[in-house]
Amino acid sequence: MRAWQITAHGAPRDVLAAADVAVPEPGPGEVRLVVRAAAVGMPDAFMCRGSYAFRPSLPFTPGQEVCGVVDAAGDGVTIRLGTRLMAVTSFFDGTGGFAEQTIARTESSFRVPDGMDDVEAAGFRIGYSTAWVGLVRRGGLRAGDQLLVLGAAGGSGATALCLGRALGARVIAVVGGREKAALCEALGADVVIDRTTQSVPDAALEATGGAGVDLVYDPVGGEAANATLDCLARDGRILAVGFASGEWVQPDPHRLVRRNASVVGVYAGGYSREENDADHEALLALWERGALSGTGTTVLPFDQLPDAVALVDEGRAVGKVVVRAAGVG
């Protein structure tokens, strides 16, 4: 089968190469999926550069998130062949989704509603499940809260923007550039701050009448995240989701204490299957009511996978980036 493999560590266009590889076989508790669409995220770029927590032996196939159809199942699996699923793949062992077929554990595979197309399903699971864990389980978001989203036009931030709006928050989106600002406006952000022309803390304080924000959804980390302490309300929470900047948020503890503020870790992988199912169904219920809109997805063909990963790696992606399998409409 055809696959894109990381052959060395470096920039995505330099290290991703097309290859013919053996079709993977599912083990116990696993399914094999014919990939219909695969989402691209920052971890894929980090894996290209060798800076991610998982580093399979070279060469390997990356790609965390897919929508596909089951065509083989391992021992103990009761899912029927032909079932369409959204899944987090076995990317951690090098059998990722940037291929014609991939492997996923059943515990990481979830139902796709009939009305959801392959492209939207491919980019749904990780972004929205992380946003739910961050905003609901860890952040305790309430209707009327002031929610500031860093990297709001990226794949992670856009889902937090949409979910925050669906849950009744007032959403302040932080972006870099006019094109990304336009996406967030279209997604329903109440306020958009362009960090390239404005001070984020000053603009956020102005937008909240000086009160500050209740939650910061932070997939970016680094100085951009540290600076949000200057616009955090009393009892506010910075949700540490990711480190697209290359560094986690590290605010001054003394200043946190003075504000009775907190940094809250967000890890969507830390929950049981029962909890994940409950979250997934709650998200699908919002989607089915039309409360979760699309996230401005950029769609490229499978043959342009290195370009797709480069968009994310270079910070040029506007919305979620997804590659579609050949022959899939």
Description:
It is built from eleven helices and 14 strands. The protein has 329 residues and is an alpha/beta fold. It has two domains: 2-123 and 297-324, Quinone Oxidoreductase, Chain A, domain 1 (Alpha-Beta Complex); 127-269, NAD(P)-binding Rossmann-like Domain (Rossmann fold, 3-Layer(aba) Sandwich), CATH 3.40.50. The strands form three sheets. Strands 3, 4, 5, 6, 13 and 14 form a six-stranded mixed β-sheet that branches. A six-stranded parallel β-sheet has the order 9-8-7-10-11-12, with helices on both faces. The protein is globular. 50% of the residues are buried. The model has no long low-confidence stretch (mean pLDDT 95).
**Count of domains:** 2
Distance between the termini: 20 Å
CATH architecture of the largest domain: Alpha-Beta Complex
Count the helices. How many? 11
Write the H/E string, N to C.
EHEEHEEEHHEHEHEHEHEHEHEHE
CATH class of the largest domain: Alpha Beta
* Average pLDDT score: 95
Could you give a short account of the major beta sheet?
6 strands, mixed
Q: How many beta-strand runs?
A: 14
The helical percent reads 25-40%
Structural class: alpha/beta
Judging from the principal axes of the Cα atoms, what is the shape?
globular
CATH fold description of the largest domain:
Quinone Oxidoreductase, Chain A, domain 1
Low-confidence segments, ≥5 residues, pLDDT <50?
A: none
Under CATH, the homologous superfamily of the largest domain reads Medium-chain alcohol dehydrogenases, catalytic domain
Strand content: 25-35%
Based on CA atoms alone, the radius of gyration comes out at: 19 Å
